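Good morning N.,

You mentioned wanting to compare the apo and holo forms, so I went ahead and generated the holo version with zinc ion. This is what I fed in:
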Amino acid sequence: MKYAIGIDIGAAKIKGVLAGGAGKILACLEIPTGAKRKRAAILRDILKFIDCLKGEAEVRGLKLEGIGVGVPGTIKAGKLVFGGGTLKQFVGVDFKNLIQKKTGLKTALENDSAVFVSAESYFGAGKNFDRVAGVIWGSGIGGGILDKNNRPRVPARAVEIGHFIVEPDIKNEPKCGCGKRGCAENLASGKNIVRRYYARGGKMKNAGVREIYFSKEKAARKVLDDAYGYLGRAIAVFVDIINPDIIVIGGGVSNLPEPAYQKLREYSRRHLVKMPAKKLKITRSKLGNFSGALGAAMLLLAR
Ligand SMILES: [Zn+2]
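and this is what came out, ligand included:
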């Protein structure tokens, strides 16, 4: 079996796995990103983090094919060229060469939603479907698509679903990291659900999306209902264009209980015509917190 390290760099957490070719996770690790820090400090942590997983492979006597890295944003030739709404301090960083030089291992870089979709397509909730779409619903919002029928095989592609405009005329909202107002991420990502809750007079201290979900407060109900509605609109456009067999949701906010999914399905269907609305399947990630990291490792492992 072939082995590789996979790293998923998110705005809230950095996750990593030591994985084998058949989607087997041998070891996993997670640290907070500390995204408000300067990029040099975060990069130092990422390199230390990789060292730990490398050490784990050495202890087990495994030869590594390399390191796969998933980051939010647009990737061109191993560089992050657009950071979207999160981790903007990494724009321009040549991750591929930097990690390759420091570790001596072959490194591949891809968008975080694309690697998430790839793992879920082959080993998770999308296993029995041909055309799999994924949405990362976390601090930011991202999307990806993989069609397993494509010949020759092509890797999963990122789709900037988070920056689809879902409320063009909205005012009184700060601009998203993409430079616009009224995109799905601006109104429905985890970070922005919390921001909008406090902007509407939310009373809980240090609330996260989960606390907001379980709260009976008016502000909490309103911002979450808005979030389902706005993300639902973005999903409807996504479905209209690519017609996927299933949509798999991952990321920090995806851990909300099933009634949140019922709402999301209901709001997505509202904006779809009859047939795609009828066949719409929206489900939670099956591989859980480490699906992105596993997908990143798969960049180095032939399927
Ligand atoms: Zn945006």
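The two ends are 11 Å apart (CA to CA).

Happy to go through it together on a call whenever suits you.

Best,
F.
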